[in-house]
Design a protein that fits this description.
The chain is α+β, with helices and mostly antiparallel strands. GO terms for molecular function: glutamine synthetase activity.
């Protein structure tokens, strides 16, 4: 061996050095992420190299400053888009839009155009970029148009960048777009969102000019939306008709272990899950989505991903893409991603906390209190505007998150209650209370905390704690709207937040100008206005336990706040005279457009519960009842002398009869439908079908704990939540 080794010209040290050189030549994971980020997005830098200087400046004026689009540059932009997309492997393009289903829609067209004599060219014109004509008859319109009226239009939104979506055999250029009827009425979620952004800018910019402290010339809302979700093994998913049909389990006995040990939250992420997360993140990075955080959530099988702040219009687009990527990527790992607000009864549901703020085009966050929040009158002015907005429009905030699925989460002991209130934190509450009393100044402030060991650093302490029970909480430099559902598009909630704050700022500016016209100094006028606004609307501020029964009583009976316990309670308020006036005044939604959204939300509620009711009936009749009868038949083979068999047989027989009786009631309620109008049907679902479903489930879940597990036809909670 020694002789053979000596005959080889092999230097171990040299080989090691060569290996190190080769290894360092490869990009590191961080370099890969940096290189990957926005690689499938047509960024401004990409466009700048493909367009004339004048055309690019014109497009930037539209995208960044909201100036009117110059149609003469459309061909130039289209050519740049097509060239870039084809370099990325795209063969088709689509106007990607957000209809009133809450999801996204796309119709793909090829760049290919036959030129005769067996020749084809790849083309894409400015006309094709600006407008496309999809069939509008198959999308919900809420009465804005009859079913036989099919014409609708998608129109390019230049304020959101185009991007590439990849699949196994190619790629597609996606052009963010709005969707409108033949008469120009909004049939989508993006159009009113863009209108609300403009309304906010129009309301807030004059205030900034008056204060004179900002370098910004334009204001927009910014948003970071957390996304909670569950992952279960794919094999279990397809054996559960309820998950396939409705996205949640309609049956399932509580396992011996749920989240009681509190060992899942922030716990070590299982290897397969972490591999899935990493894969999904790389795809999200390529789409320019700035995901920052990933972790286990509270419930077993529950997880979260969260991006950092973005322009709210782009954040809404990115949220839709994030849900799509999470769902499709999970399948590659033998998993299914569940985004229903409450896929498993008895454990935590999933939300989509929307962290909302306002920012100028100079990068200034208008809700940043700074080091001396008690002296920052600009911050206190805008915070007062939010207090006023939330107090006056509790109904609208509750309605914009109303759905049959969110009803299973809201109002429970694991999610913000159906009562809308604001948490300010002890420091900010103290500042406002001092202003209200005329005392002024700042009582509570941050400091440093020692941790009891010399080796540990002293850490900065926030002046106030967090409150996870608040549906609308101030969290340092933003407000966190925690009531948004995990499966929901965030476009409508953002639209509502933009609208109510724009309206509130407009009202306060009118009041402030009146004081200034009366000869009052700006600082004095601002201090008085903030003080009076807080006194008028302080009933909306609550820093205590939002889950407690005492708060429900206090909110309703002492403070006069709304407690809209179900989606239908909230939807009754959506198309109210107050809200018609609000949206109309701000030119966000006209009367018909708002009424249409209410009608569609009623319709979706009805259809959601109707599907669940019929699926419950099917599973109980075709799966659970036969399993119970089969077990009873098996027990008959046990010797008659067995007291255990006799006792079990009696119990199972009794529960089987109860299941049969409950099933008959559900069958009758499913068939009844409740009336001809969608509102009547929706209320029938809430008041009759849901209670009948709960009764069937109660009995079935007891049977699950009685029947031989070999005969039970459904994967259990124990399997779905803990087998990863």
């Amino acid at each position: 061996m020694t002789q053979a080794s000596n005959t080889q010209d092999f230097d171990v040290n040299s080989a090691a050095r060569n290996w190190r050189v080769e290894a360092t030549a490869q990009p590191t994971p961080s370099e890969l992420v940096t290189e990957k980020f926005a690689s499938d997005v047509l960024t401004a830098d990409q466009l700048k190299t493909r367009m004339s200087k004048s055309a690019f400046k014109s497009l930037q004026a539209t995208a960044e400053r909201g100036e009117k689009l110059d149609p003469s540059i459309a061909d130039t932009v289209a050519l740049a888009m097509k060239t870039w997309a084809m370099e990325k492997g795209a063969t088709h393009y689509t106007h990607w839009f957000q209809p009133l289903t809450g999801g996204t829609a796309e119709k793909h067209d090829s760049f290919l155009n036959p030129a005769g004599d067996g020749v084809a060219i790849m083309s894409f014109s400015g006309k094709e970029l600006i407008q496309a004509e999809p069939d509008a008859s198959s999308f919900p319109s809420g009465g804005l148009r009859a079913t036989f009226e099919a014409r609708g239009y998608t129109a390019w939104d230049p304020s959101s960048p185009a991007f590439i979506v990849r699949h196994a055999n190619g790629a597609t250029l996606c052009i963010p777009s709005v969707f409108a009827s033949w008469k120009g009425e909004a049939l989508d979620l993006k159009t009113p969102l863009l209108r609300s952004i403009e309304a906010l800018n129009k309301a807030v910019t004059p205030a900034l000019k008056l204060f004179g402290a900002s370098e910004g010339t334009r204001v927009t809302s910014s948003l970071g939306a957390e996304q909670e979700y569950f992952l279960i093994a794919e094999e279990y998913y397809y054996r559960r008709p309820d998950l396939v049909m409705s996205g949640r389990t309609l049956f399932g006995a509580k396992p011996p272990r749920g989240q009681e040990l509190e060992d899942h939250y922030f716990g070590a992420i299982p290897d397969r899950i972490l591999s899935f997360m990493t894969d999904a993140e790389m795809q999200l990075y390529a789409l320019g989505i700035p995901v920052k955080t990933r972790h286990n959530e509270v419930a077993p099988g529950q997880f979260e991903v969260a991006p950092i702040f973005e322009h709210s219009n782009i954040a809404a687009d990115h949220q839709q893409l994030m849900m799509q990527v999470l769902r499709t990527t999970a399948r590659k790992y033998g998993l299914v991603c569940l985004m229903h607000e409450k896929p498993f009864a008895g454990i935590n549901g999933s939300g989509k906390h929307c962290n909302w703020s306002m920012a100028t085009d100079a990068g200034e966050n208008l809700l940043d209190p700074g080091d001396t929040p008690d002296e920052n009158m600009q911050f206190l002015f805008f915070t007062s505007a939010v207090l006023k907005a939330v107090d006056e429009h509790q109904d609208l905030l509750r309605a914009c998150v109303a759905s049959a699925s969110n009803d299973h989460r809201l109002g429970a002991a694991e999610a913000p209650p159906a009562i809308i209130s604001i948490f300010l934190g002890s420091e900010l509450s103290d500042i406002f209370e001092r202003l209200a009393s005329g005392q002024g100044g700042r009582g509570k402030s941050a400091g440093l905390m020692g941790l009891g060991s010399r080796v540990l650093p002293e850490i900065p302490v926030h002046a106030g704690d967090r409150n996870r029970t608040s549906p609308f909480a101030f969290t340092g430099n933003k407000f966190e709207f925690r009531a948004v559902g995990s499966s929901q598009s965030i476009s409508f909630p953002i639209t509502v937040m933009n609208a109510i704050v724009a309206d509130s700022v407009g009202d306060l500016m009118t009041d402030l100008q009146t004081r200034l016209d009366g000869g009052m100094e700006l600082s004095t006028a601002l201090a008085e206005l903030v003080r009076e606004t807080y006194k008028t609307h302080k009933r909306i501020v609550f820093d205590g336990d939002g889950y407690s029964d005492e708060w429900h009583h206090e909110a309703e009976h002492e403070r006069g706040l709304l407690n809209l316990r179900t989606a239908l309670d909230a939807l009754e308020h959506l198309h109210s005279p107050k809200n018609i006036e609000l949206f109309g005044k701000l030119k966000i939604l006209n009367d018909r457009e708002l009424a249409a959204r209410q009608e569609i939300m009623y319709d979706i509620y009805f259809k959601t519960v109707n599907i669940e009711g019929e699926t419950t009936e099917y599973m109980a009749q075709r799966q659970i009842l036969p399993a119970a009868l089969a077990y009873l038949a098996a027990l008959k083979n046990v010797p008659e002398s067995s007291r255990a068999a006799a006792g079990v047989s009696r119990e199972v027989s009794d529960m089987t009869d109860k299941l049969y009786d409950a099933l008959q009631v559900l069958r009758e309620q499913n068939a009844a439908q409740g009336g001809e109008e969608v509102h009547e049907k929706a209320y029938h679902m809430r008041d009759h079908v849901l209670p009948a479903m709960r009764e069937v489930r109660t009995v079935a879940d007891r049977l699950e704990n009685m029947i031989d597990f070999k005969l039970w036809p459904l994967p259990t909670y124990r399997q779905m939540l803990f087998v990863k």
